[in-house]
Amino acid sequence: MALLETKDLTINFGGLTAVSGLNLALNTGDLHGLIGPNGAGKTTVFNMITGVYLPSSGSIIFDNHNIIGLQPHEITKLGIARTFQNIRLFKGLSVLDNIRIALHMRANCSVPAAVFRLPQYYREEHRIKQRAMELLKIFGLQDLAEKTAGSLPYGQQRRLEIARALATDPKLLLLDEPAAGMNPQETKELMALIRWIRKEFGLTILLIEHHMEVVMGVCEHIKVLDYGVTIAEGPPEEIKKHPKVIEAYLGEEIKSA
Amino acid sequence: MRAIENEFVRRFVVPAVASTALYWILVSIAYRNDYYMYVLTMCAINVIGATSLNLINGFTGQFSLGHAGFMAVGAYVAGSLTKFGHWPFVGALLAGMAGAAVAGFLVGLPTLRLRGDYLAIATLGFGEIIRMLIINSDKLGLKFLEGPRGVPGIKRYSTFGWAFFFAVVTVWILANYIWSTHGRACGAVKEDEVAAEAMGVGTTTYKVMSFTIGASFAGLAGGLHAHLLQLLHPASYDFLKSCDFLVMIVVGGMGNLTGSVLGALFVTLITEALRKLLELRMLAYAVGLICVMLFRPEGLFGTREFSLGALRFLAPRRPVSQVGGDKSGAT
Amino acid sequence: MELLQQIINGISLGSIYALIALGYTMVYGIVRLINFAHGDVYMAGAYIAYLIANRFSEETVWRFPLILLASMGGCSLLGMAIERVAYKPLRNRPRIATLTTAIGVSIFLENLVRVAIGPNFLGFPEIITRTSWEIKGITISNVQVVVPGCTVLLVLVLHYVVHKTKAGKAMRAVSFDRDVAMLMGVNVDNTIRITFAIGSALAAAAGVLVGIAYPRIDPYMGIMAGLKAFVSAVLGGIGIIPGAALGGLMMGVAEVMAVQLFSSSLKDAIAFVVLIVVLLVKPTGLLGKVASEKV
To answer: B147 in contact with A at a CB cutoff of 8 Å?
Structure first.
C-alpha cells in the first residue's frame, strides 16, 4: 500500500485545466521529483495534496485516508508537511517562534491550562522549546533563534522553512523549489541535507525543483508535467534521455548538465 | 520542580502583590476625591476594553471596529440582571461576559471569510446592528429595556476596587493566553494564514476564539461601565466608542499588551484633562490623534513590551527573550 | 401607486448616497483607504452651501448652480488638503494607521464645524423654490427631479473624465497597479490628489442636494450618511464606479421601503443588514470580480 496515492487527479480553474489525470504513487521512504516548465501545474499538485485547492475530480489517498475535502490543517495533522515556492515564513516572528508554531499542533496544552498556568502548560512549553532548539541545531540556526525570521538571509530562510515543516512531525514532506535562489555552495549543502533528513526522520519526500542538478542528483524517480499532463516518468537517467522531455522543456539544460 | 515553584512566584504571587500595592497607592492618593476615583475607574474599564480589542486586532491580525457592540451586550445583560433580576454584581458581570462571548462567537463565525477592510466594515456593521436592536428593543418585545430612552437607575456597584481587580485579572489572563502556544498560533494567523494552516494551525478556530475571548472581556468592560454610569443607553455604545478603543490600541502600539494598557490610560486621562477646554475638547483630541499618527505611526509606546514597574509582572516578557534566561537556568 | 411613489422618493435619497459612494469608491480604488472623513466632506459641502446661500439671497436662476459649483470647488480644495496633510505621509504605513488618522480627520471636521458654526440643527435655505405636481396620485416635486438630474449629470461628467481624459487614464492606471503606473511615468502623487479632489467635489454636490431635498443640516450628518454611502459602494463592488452609483440608488430605495414597511427606527439598521448580507454572499459586490490569492 502506497503512502500517498493520487488517481486521475484533475483540477480546472474556470475553463483552464491546470492538472489533468495525475497519478502519483509514493511508498514510504521514496524520494520523488516533480518537474516541468513554468506553469506546468506542479505547485497546483502540492496545493491539492495539502488541501489549499479542492480537486475537480480524482482521488488522493494518504496513509489510508481519503484526504480530499479536508482542511489544510487537518491534512498537516495526518502527516503531510510542505514548504512554499516563495517562502512563507512568519516573517515578523522570531526564528524560534516559527518552529514553536509548527509544534503547536501536537502540543497537549488546553486553553485553560495556558491561561491559568497549570503544570501541563509548563510541561508542554518546556517540551516545545527543547524540541524547537533541537531542530534549529540540526539546521545550524540555533544561534539565530531570537532573530526575526524575515531578517535572515535567503538561504537560511529556506532552511528554516524546511525545519519548520519537519516540526509538524510529518510522514510526507513536500518541498517546493527548495533550491530556488541558492548559490552553488548552498545548493550542494541542501542536497546533502535532503538526503540526510530523509534518513534521519524516516521521511518520504516529493520535490519540485528547477535546478536539474538537484533533481537529478537526489531523486530516485521523476515525473514530468507539461500543461498539467504527465509526459514522462522514470529514473533520472531515463528522464534525461526521454525525447518528449527534452522537447518540452529540458533541452539545452540537460545537455550541459 | 524548582523552576515551577519560581514560575509560580513569578506568575501568581508577584502580580498579586504588585497589583495590590499599586491599588493601595492609587487609592491613598485619590480616595478623598470622587472625581479622581471616577477617572481611575474609567481608566480600569478602558484597560479591559483596549487590551481585549488588541487580542483581536493586534495579536490575531483581525480588524474589528465593533467592540462597542460587545460592550453594549455586556452592559445590558449585566445591568438588567442587577436591576430587574436582583442578581449579585459579580454574577451579573459574568453573565454579561457570557452574553458578549456568544455575540462575539456569532460575529466571528460569519466574518471569517473576510479580511482587512471588509472585516473592519462588517464588524462595524454588526456593532451598529447590535445598537439598533437595542434601540428597537421596546418594539421587539423587551419593553423593560425602553428602546432609545435607555434604562436609568442602575446601582453604582462599579467601585474602583472592582474595576481595578477585573482589569488586573483581564490583563493577566490575556497575557497568559498570548504568551502560550495558543497565543503563538494567533500570531501565525496574523502573519500568514496559508502558512499557518500548512503548519497545522486551525485558523478558523483561532479567529473565532479571539473574537469570542475579546468580546467577552468587552462585555465585562460594558458591565462595569453600566454600573459606573448608572444608566443603560444605546448611545453610549456607538461607533465612536469602538473608535475610542481602536485609538487606544493604535496609540499604544498594535500587538503590544503593555502598550494598550498605557494607551488606555493615556487616552482616558487626556480626554479627562481636555474637559476644561469644553467646546474645543474634541477638536484638540482629533488634532492630537492625527499628530500621533503622523509622527509616531507605530504608536507612542512602539512595538516592544515595556517592563515598567508592576506592569512587568502583569505582562510577562516575550518568550523570545526568555531563551537566554531559561538556558542559564538549565546549565 | 404607493410603491411607485416610494421608489421615486427612494431615488432622490439614493442619488445622494450614490454621489458620496462615488468618492469612497474612487479613493478606495486608488489608495485602498476607507476614507472615514469622506462623510464629513459631504457635511462640509452642505455647510459651505449654507453659508454662501445665506450671504447671497438674490433670487436668480443662477443661484443654485453657482452655489453648487462654489461648494464643490471648496470641498475639492478641502479634500486635497486632507490628503496632503493626513494621508500622504502615511501612504506606505499599515492600513490601520491611515484608518485611525482618517477617524481623527473625521472627528476634527465635525468638531471644527461644531465650534465654528454651532452644534444644532440648522434649516437649509430654500435655494430652489419648491413646487410639486400631482400625476395620477403620485406627487413629484421639482426637487425630486433636480436631485437625480444633477446626479446623472455629474456621473456622466465623471464617466467622461475617467474614460476620456489623460487624468482619468492615469487614475485607472494607478488603481490597477500603482508601482507599474509610476514606472510608466504616471505622476502618482498628482493622480491621487486629483482623485481626492473629484471625490470630494462629488461629496459636496451631495451635501448641497441633501440640503435642498431634506433641509436640515448638522455637524454630525456625515457620519451615518457616510457609512451608508460606504455600504452602497461595497454593495456595488468597491473600486467600481458604476457599482457605486447602482449601490447608492439601491440603498436609497431600500431605506425608504424599510421605513415604509416596518418602522422609521429601522432607517439606519437596513444599511447594515444589507452590508452584512452582501459581505457574506458576495463580498466583491454586485459588479465585482473575484480575485483569489496566489499560493
So the answer is: no
Is residue A27 included in any domain, yes or no?
Answer: yes
**Which 235-254 residues of chain B touch chain C by CB within 8 A?**
239-240, 243, 246-247, 250, 254
The candidate with the shortest Cα–Cα distance to B159, out of B257, B252, B30, B279, is B30
What number of other Cβ atoms are within 10 A of residue B272's Cβ? Answer: 16
- Is residue C295 very low, low, confident or very high in pLDDT (cuts 50, 70, 90)? low
Boundary of a domain, candidates A108, A126, A154: A154
Which partners does chain A have (≥3 C-beta pairs < 8 Å)? B, C
Across the interface, whether the CB atoms of A105 and B199 are under 8 A apart is answered yes
Interface size between A and C, measured as CB pairs under 8 A:
4
Point out the residue among A93, A104, A128 whose CB comes nearest to the CB of B200.
A104
For residue B317, the model assigns a pLDDT of 47
DSSP at A117:
T
Q: What is the pLDDT of residue C293?
A: 56
Q: List the single residue in A with minimal CA-CA distance to B172.
A: A115
Same domain, A122 and A50: no
Considering its fold, how many domains does chain A have in total?
2
Q: What span, in angstroms and rounded, lies between the C-alpha atoms of A78 and A73?
A: 9
Low-confidence ranges of chain A (pLDDT < 50): 254-257
- One domain, residues A103 and A58: no
For range C74-93, the mean pLDDT: 93
Q: Indicate which CATH number applies to the domain containing B129.
A: 1.10.3470
Is the pLDDT reported for residue B323 higher than 70?
Answer: no
pLDDT in tens, B215-253: 999 999 999 999 999 999 999 998 889 999 999 998 898
Contact, C236 vs C24, CB < 8 A?
Answer: no
- Provide the residue range defining the domain that includes A106: 91-154
Reported ipTM: 0.90
**A72 and A114 part of one domain:** no
C-alpha distance from C295 to closest chain A C-alpha (Å): 8
Residue labelled with grid coordinates 464588524: B123
By C-alpha distance, which of C99, C116, C134 is closest to C219?
Answer: C116
**In degrees rounded to 5, what are phi and psi of residue A62?**
-125, 120
Residue given cell 527534452 in the structure block: A246
Total tally of structural domains belonging to chain B: 1
Instruction: Give per-residue pLDDT as tens, B21-42.
Output: 999 999 988 888 899 999 999 9
Q: pLDDT tens for residues B128-159?
A: 899 989 998 888 888 888 888 899 999 999 99
Q: What's the domain range around B14?
A: 2-322
For range B295-303, the mean pLDDT = 79
Mean pLDDT confidence for C195-215: 95
CB B22 within 8 A of CB B40: no
- Which chain A residues are closer than 8 Å to B169 by Cβ? none
Chains that touch B (3 or more CB pairs under 8 A): A, C
Q: Is residue A197 part of a domain?
A: yes
Residues 6 or more apart whose Cβ sits within 8 Å of residue C208: C45, C46, C49, C67, C68, C71, C72, C127
Residue A97: inside a domain: yes
Out of A73, A96, A119, name the one closest to residue B197 (CB).
A73
At residue B328, does pLDDT exceed 70?
A: no
What per-residue confidence (pLDDT) applies to B325? 34
Is A104 within 8 Å of B199 when comparing Cβ atoms? yes
Query: In chain B, where does DSSP find H-type helix?
Result: 2-8, 14-30, 34-54, 67-83, 89-108, 116-135, 160-178, 181-191, 193-198, 203-229, 239-252, 257-273, 281-295, 311-314, 319-330
Which of A128, A154, A180 is the last residue in one of the domains? A154
Nearest residue on chain B to A147, alpha-carbon basis = B320
Is B283 within a domain?
Answer: yes
